[in-house]
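Morning run. Coffee first, then this:
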Amino acid sequence: MMNANSEAIETEVLIVGGGPVGLSLAGDLGWRGIRCIYIEQTDGVIGQPKMDGINVRTMEFCRRWGITADIRNCGYPKDYPQDMVYLTSFNGYELGREEFATPSGGSEERRLGSSPETRFRCPQDLFDPILQKFARSMPTVTAKYQCRLAEFAQDGDGVTSRIEDARSGGRFAIRSRYLAGCDGASSQVRKHYDIGMSGLGTLTYTTNVMFRCPALRESRSTRLGYRHLFIGPEGTWATVVAIDGRDNWRLSIIGSVEKQELGEAEVRAAIERVIGKPAAFEVLSVVPWVRRELVADRWRDGRVFLVGDSAHMTSPTGGFGMNLGIADAVDLSWKMEAVLKGWGGPQLLESYQLERKPVAQRAVREASGNLQRTLSPGANPGLLAESYEGALLRYRIGQKFSATMLREWYKLGIDLGYVYDPSPVIAPEDEDFSAAQQHLSAMAAAGSALPAPEGYLVDGTRLSASLLREWQRLSLHLALSFPVKPEWQELPAREVMLYRQSASPGARAPHFWVDDATSTLDWYGRGFVLVDTGDDARSRDAFLRAAGTAGVPASVQVNNDADLRALYAAPLTLVRPDGHVAWRGRSLDEPRAGQLIARVRGALH
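And here it is:
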């Protein structure tokens, strides 16, 4: 049994793992003034990037941290097309494509959409250095590379960890209040506590191949995109993504549930097959990996927490993995801050698993469904036939596959639409403030139809270019897709493909442009924020007094804009440091405000 050592390095949080999730946790803790150390057993340089897309929610966190400009100038060519292309080879038949002018889908998702940000293409070898710079810019963050966790033990007051330094060969101790295991799918931290995992398990044995091929940029047979899905007579067998928008590409040979080890000749043959004609190329790296769907049964053991891939493993179909992990980190970070600074109650850290585990289960299951959609064409022996019948077959497969894959590309319902319900630190609203009820009441009071050119759905959702695009894609998906019937009950396509902002408790607080540069999301991050659209000074004062008595950092935002009032529905909306709604209602008096603060800071049992 390890004991606390007076010679140990002291910190508040030890983060095991310096990938994007560990870096995000370190950066957010540092941004909150919390002392932390992150250790990474490598030198931090990314050889083969595992991720290549930052979703909208992660970009919102990066906006809060002030690093979106670095991301937009990461070096990936801004004019490189982001289309999803379905084809037999780069020099073969194009079966279909979903066009994206930018990683976000174009101007229709800007300004008129549901976020001040857009998803962005920034592969991990470009994104990790930005996160490293952000984390290490915080004076309370210490980075230790080429260091690995040798052993650790916790007691009632903290965690003592022994660290091995690969450069010196020596060992040193770190004493922390908490430990966060951001150490990936093979997590040593998870295995230490023998925490089981549940889910579908192994889905495929896949091989990733990084290769360089300048000739692909000169292809005249196929207009290049970002992600290319290759369909042969046997079905969908590989994908190729444009890693740097220039000469480097990542081939993923999808494989099967049977373990495979591809030799050099097989790897080269696969590259030659996707290129489709003789061309010079260089194999840079080959990484076999196992595609799994698993979620940890427990995300916490006392003072030790699992974050990111250590808590959930997912098929990359959907791009959920890293983005889920960063959202885990943001949820955990403000709760650790609260407890370490003395205003967080015992239920606050307990809520981490209760809130994040269902979100992970929902996303990883969606990713498994996306894998089935990727494989949905099945075998079509006549696919490459140079005949009328072959051309008709290619047309039909292209049409149906294009519609089928829309669910993976349009999935804001997964990225933004999750709600922390139930949660011990979310307070129920006082009455039904649904958008439909508020909108219909306003129409009845006005006694007239909505003025042109405004457009609204029946539930009061304001129409935008992005919503119309998503609605049209949903209609195509429902009408033309291949039948995909997994063994589980899938979420309705509508819930995945359509996202409507809501200020209901537990939901992400809605985005609204306060002025040309400021979103409501810019109000949130440090402490609790009471949004007052009814100019209720008495309620504001009661809230601030209750928060001050409990030591909870809090502020108010007063804005009487009619559109903001309609979007948030209730006169008062309380938003947490992570940007999720903690409560909404009509008014607060002293007793109610005190009870509310106790609930949202985790002090009620």
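Residues 9-76+118-197+295-363 form a domain with the FAD/NAD(P)-binding domain fold (CATH 3.50.50.60). Good start to the day.
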